[in-house]
Amino acid sequence: MKRVFERQIYLILIPLVLQDSKMKFSIGDRVEVQGYEDGLQRSYFSGTIIESRHGNDDYLVEYDNLLENENSSKKLKERVNPFFVRPEPPLMQDDFYKVHEWVDAYENDGWWFGTISRIKGSDYYVYFLMHEVEKAYKLRDLRVHHEWKDDIGCWVPCKVYNEKKKTAEKCKVSSSPGASSSKARPKNR
């Protein structure tokens, strides 16, 4: 079911990600790569840095769950611009979510940013603004949405959009990179 939200409110929710990244990664570091091609905006795919070249001008990432092609069992390796690479966030899953909370939903081998639009029984409906679609998820397929703050070098979990203040209310600042579990996808799927 497609549900339309007032764009003027929700456009504020999408921060620009392209910034001069100060974060430098080493071989073996766990990361997430932001999808940048059409249809992949605001999605994140887990992987490992396997090569860095030209003073970190780009990274070779081996993805955890993406394959070279649909007939292959070989993991996809891709050269990625540092603008699209962030540390893997800490995995924070709540016991429940509320309407308007920001979450990442696990689907198609990656995490997709959205907003809880409604709750029906044990189903959490997530609205994806970039794709203008709403979809139901179980609790196990959701995580608290985090934004990496490169300027201060830490994760900020963003949970609830405050319509009066037009800002995201932030929980406490999360730990720096390396605090994440190496879970690429939820268990018990």
Draw up the topology in text:
Elements: H1 7-10, E1 30-34, E2 43-53, E3 58-67, E4 75-80, E5 85-87, E6 102-107, E7 110-120, E8 123-128, E9 133-137, E10 142-144, E11 146-149, E12 154-162, E13 167-170
Antiparallel strand pairs: 1-2, 1-5, 2-3, 2-7, 3-4, 6-7, 6-10, 7-8, 8-9, 11-12, 12-13
Word description of this protein:
With 189 residues, the protein is mostly beta strands. It is 2% helix and 44% strand. Strands 1, 2, 3, 4, 5, 6, 7, 8, 9 and 10 form a 10-stranded antiparallel β-sheet that branches. Strands 11-12-13 form a 3-stranded antiparallel β-sheet, with no helix packed on it. It is globular. 27% of the residues are buried. The N terminus and C terminus are likely disordered.
Number of strands: 13
Backbone structural class: mainly beta
Percent of sequence in beta strands: 35-45%
Helix content: under 10%
Unreliable runs: 1-19, 161-189
SSE arrangement, N to C: HEEEEEEEEEEEEE
Q: Please give the count of helices.
A: 1
Shape: globular
Distance between the termini: 23 Å
> What is the residue-mean pLDDT, rounded to a whole number?
77
